[in-house]
Design goal:
The protein is 34% helix and 2% strand. The protein is mainly α and 190 residues long. A two-stranded antiparallel ribbon has the order 1-2. It holds the Pfam family ALOG_dom.
């Protein structure tokens, strides 16, 4: 499992990790939304790399795990595994910098994957799962346990780093009044 820290990175892993007894395709070469003449978007390339990395993780899992037996619990195990490659300092409650977005000095708190990175990763893997033949209702990346874990990570990191993850409210235009129709005066009024 040492070869997986390229989640979210720019390196390419085009190794075919498909399993013969698996109804879903783990190889990134069967993208349903990209055409052969256009170059894939950055998002599509990242989604393919993430999908291949998750497939490699399943292949290296002990015992090896096929995609159709993968559950939300396995996705959580994968997310926790990825934490070791994180670059975001998450202060512990006993750290003097807990709740400070810009600490003035170094501390021994662990580096973790940022919530936003995990959230985006799950979104890409959720889409890739369905594009590679998975049924939406059986998508392990959309499992309730995964959503709850992401919410917990967001809340914990928000408190630890002193950063708010509130959704940005869309700016709304002030309600404009509909233009008044100028009706001609009734006949004989002038």
């Amino acid at each position: 499992m040492d070869s997986l820290p390229d989640i979210g990175g720019e390196s390419s892993n085009s190794e075919n990790t498909g399993n013969n007894n698996n109804s879903l395709t783990l190889a990134g070469n069967s993208s349903a939304s990209s055409s052969s003449s256009a170059t894939p978007s950055r998002y599509e390339n990242q989604k393919r790399r993430d999908w291949n990395t998750f497939g490699q993780y399943l292949k290296n899992h002990r015992p090896p795990l096929s995609l159709n037996r993968c559950s939300g619990a396995h996705v959580l195990e994968f997310l926790r595994y990825l934490d070791q490659f994180g670059k975001t300092k998450i202060h512990t409650p006993i750290c003097p910098f807990y709740g400070h977005p810009n600490p003035p000095a170094p501390c021994p708190c662990p580096l973790r994957q940022a919530w936003g990175s995990l959230d985006a990763l799950i979104g890409r893997l959720r889409a890739a799962y369905e594009e590679n033949g998975g049924k939406p209702e059986a998508n392990p990346f959309g499992a309730r346990a995964v959503r709850l874990y992401l919410r917990e990570v967001r809340d914990l990191q928000s408190k630890a780093r002193g950063v708010s993850y509130e959704k940005k409210k869309r700016k709304r235009l002030p309600p404009s009044q509909p233009p008044q129709l100028q009706l001609p005066p009734p006949p004989g009024a002038i």
